[in-house]
Request: fold
Amino acid sequence: MADLPLFAPVGRAGSGRLDDVGFAPLQDHVLECTARYAATGAGDPGLEVTTRRWPDVDWPPLHEQVRRFGAGRDFLQRRAEGDTDAEPRAHPLGATWTRALIDVDGTPYQCDVLHSPYSWAAVAMIEPHFVVRVAALASLESPPALERIRRTDGIAPAPTAEAGG
Reply:
């Protein structure tokens, strides 16, 4: 958590679960990490919050790069549902983008919001050199406010193969 900020939806009951950790090639730091938050009831589809470190030399990223990262979950969901022709792209077929504000640690940031038949995602550039994506399998009215996870008890470790995960 010192290397890469992790975020949780504000006011969410229970902890998230660490998942999908990616390391930078030939370097010793975390490049990307996803925390998953299970659905808590009716109208709550569950969320995943992914933070990616953007290379210093490429900061700020191009708008299309940010949108391509934002659409990453949509691509995975299309493939999971059998769309073998799905491609990772900034403008997925049948999807639209809108603009909104997302509150991260009390600071509002402009974000792009993907509306797709397969998923919903909000993606924003935050704190120099980080991009955050919030994804859900069902549309949300607006991006949820996020807060930085500052204690390890706010996130459960990823399941291991030995534990049957």
Residues 59 and 129 are 6 Å apart (CA to CA). Residues 161-165 have pLDDT under 50 and may be disordered. Helices lie at 63-70, 72-80. The chain has one domain: 7-163.
